[in-house]
Amino acid sequence: MADKESAGKVDWNERARYWSQMAPKGASTNDAPNQLLISRAGIGSGDHVLDLASGAGEPAISIATTVGESGRVVALDSSERMLEGLSARAQEMDLSNVETQLGDLDSLDIGEQVFDAVTCRFGLMFAKDAMATMTAIRQSLRPGKRAAVMVHGPPDQNHLYSTVRTAVLSYFNEQDDGWAMRRFKFSAEGELRGLFEAAGFSDVDEEFISKPDIRPVGEPFWETLLMRAFGSRVSPLSAAERATLDERIAAAFVPFQTDGGIVLTSSERVASGAA
pTM value? Predict the structure, then answer.
């Protein structure tokens, strides 16, 4: 695309404007992935947890409610605006145990043996050197404590993003340069497990989760994803142009329509291991 994404960069501070607009103002509205990470990382009351690439607060906000007042969550992200939105959510929920930290996955400065758990939801794919990142994660954990990482499943089993992206590219008459495929890095079986093992983790497990994602016919269910991923392109459109884009997107989902609604597939891969 003709924006910063096509050049191999994402301006996360720019995206944060739209993420904050679309994010919940309090507790998560899609908490199942958060709870899975919390379970796999063995997080409990009183724990000191690091959440990487926290964005607007998933899963950091849910972790904060799990560890309670005696615990603490360090939410790290490379975008100041993302962290501002996260802090606002924490304040809305009266959570005083969330600390934000500006940082990058490729230059982690998080100390050794200081955390009871480390989590990362849909962020590791964007690290330039994932092995170095995973090694730093393992070193930051206290002995025997766990890290849990979630990535997207394959594009052909994540219909919402793939379909919206194709429709947006078509609307702007642009070719797919393939850069966005890094969103699906580590989606193949064994890749995430192998990364954990190569970084020195023990007791490693990996799980693939694929589930139906049923959406209502006649409603713009793609709005949140559209604005998070393409907000800077979509916002300048006139009302008529936006209506045309929405028509293009709606048409792209027609092949998935059944009597029960728009039946899509959503998938993730999660792995965890002990330091």
Answer: 0.92
